[in-house]
Specification:
6 strands; OMP_efflux; efflux transmembrane transporter activity; alpha+beta; coiled coil; single chain
Length: 438
């Protein structure tokens, strides 16, 4: 008896669920409201995940700050009155001198452009950060979904084990009633049945916990679905590691650090621009009440030795920029290691799953059938039958584990590369991520 599992290799943190929907008939998906597909889970998460919504407000705040950065120095209106309410000739306002003037600052060194570049770099970093966070969130969702499908497959296997235990118990009881089997074998078969029942109950509870974890991704505490829908063992094609690593070098995680480098560059420009002294100017009209005459006034102010006071800021900005370069190198090395581990593990798991499914399980199913027939005819012992059953169940469990590992590894690969392994069968990253930002 070949186990039928529901899981499919086309899962990815962002795109594989959409492939899942394209391979399943939409009519079935719409008619069964109690089931959850990965596509539906991803769409709900993109629409309602609280963590992803936070980035929208962050970007709104940065856009508002950019508007402030683009402003030129403000104009100030000054009114100054001198020589009034004094003594002697200056008593009252007869000898007062009133000045009405405008004043402002002339920024030198490209300070306004530096501020705008800094604001733009921060917005760019926030946008890439949103994409990286979206990939990370959907990657975690995909992993939980795959584990939930694996639990359903394990539950199905446990129910199969329970059915076998019930059948074996009935066979042992029949043989014991004929005096062909000792009472101890009946007791052992009953204990095996209890263990199978406990296993089923444990997996049912585990599946309920996983459904709650899934609902959390779109802000709900009570799942509105009863089961997960998917399929298994269509692993698809695989790219070479060099191709995958080339894709990973343009992923959002590295783009965040690239944006960080642009921010540091802008900080260096701002620090150097601050070393150029701004000119403060003032111009107005002065009226002399004593004579009734008026005159223009003008002034300019230049700070002295401001360049020397700014050297420390420039050195600090340069140091921060150099630190980003080393952080990028470290991230590339870590990315290479994680990607190779996932690529190698996926390849190994696919090979193990294929060999187990096509060779080991059919042989063990035949062995169990022959052992069962021999046990019923008295040619095999009870222990031989239990050993054959456990070996078959262990191989089916290994098959589930290998498939799960392959799918989770593939989801990690696609999260790190920000692209599906099969580009023709999935949506592009830009299309999907833009839907999360609207």
């Amino acid at each position: 008896m070949r186990i039928t599992l529901i899981l499919r290799c086309k899962y990815t943190c962002l795109w594989l669920a959409f492939l899942l929907c394209s391979t399943a008939t939409s009519a079935i998906a719409e008619s069964v409201e109690s089931t959850l597909t990965l596509k539906k889970a991803l769409a709900s998460t993109l629409a309602r995940n609280p963590q992803l919504y936070q980035y929208r407000f962050t970007i709104e705040a940065l856009n508002a700050q950019e508007q402030t950065s683009a402003l030129r120095p403000a104009l100030a209106l000054e009114l100054e009155v001198e020589n009034f309410v004094g003594s002697g000739a200056h008593k009252g306002f007869d000898a007062a001198e009133t000045t009405l003037a405008l004043s402002s600052v002339i920024e030198l060194g490209g300070k306004r452009q530096a501020r705008m570049s800094y604001s733009n770099a921060r917005i760019n970093q926030a946008e890439w950060g949103q994409k990286a966070a979206t990939l990370d969130t959907l990657g975690k969702l995909t992993e939980v979904f795959i584990e939930g499908l694996a639990t359903q497959a394990n539950l199905q296997l446990a129910e199969e084990s329970l059915a076998l235990s019930q059948s074996i118990l009935q066979t042992v009881k029949t043989r014991s009633e004929r005096g062909a089997a000792p009472e101890a074998e009946v007791m052992s078969a009953q204990a095996a049945l209890i263990r199978a029942e406990i296993r089923v109950a444990s997996l049912q509870a585990k599946l309920e916990r996983q459904k709650v974890l899934l609902a959390r991704f779109w802000g709900e505490t009570t799942p509105r679905f009863h089961s997960l829908t998917g399929s298994l063992f269509d692993f698809g094609s695989s790219s070479s590691f060099d191709q995958l690593y080339a894709r990973a070098l343009t992923s959002p995680a590295l783009q965040v650090l690239a944006s960080e480098a642009r921010i540091r560059d802008a900080e260096i420009t701002m620090a150097r621009a601050s070393g150029r002294s701004d000119l403060s100017w003032r111009a107005g009209i002065k009226r002399f009440e004593e004579t009734g005459d008026s005159a223009f006034t003008a002034g300019i102010s230049v700070p002295l030795f401001s360049g020397k006071r700014n050297k420390g800021d420039v050195k600090a900005a340069l140091a921060n920029r150099n630190a980003v370069d080393y952080a990028q190198q470290d991230l590339r090395l870590a990315l290479h290691a994680r990607l190779f581990e996932a690529w190698s593990l996926r390849k190994q798991s696919i090979a193990a799953a294929t060999l187990t499914q096509n060779t080991a399980i059919p042989a063990l199913e035949k062995a169990l059938k022959l052992t069962r027939e021999g046990f019923e005819s008295g040619r095999y012992r009870y222990l031989d039958l239990i050993a054959a059953q456990e070996e078959l169940l262990a191989s089916k469990q290994a098959l589930i584990d290998a498939a799960t590992t392959a799918l989770i590894s593939q989801a990690l690969i696609e999260k790190l590369t920000a692209e599906p392994l099969e580009s023709k069968s999935a949506l592009s990253i830009d299309t999907t991520l833009e839907s999360s930002q609207r």
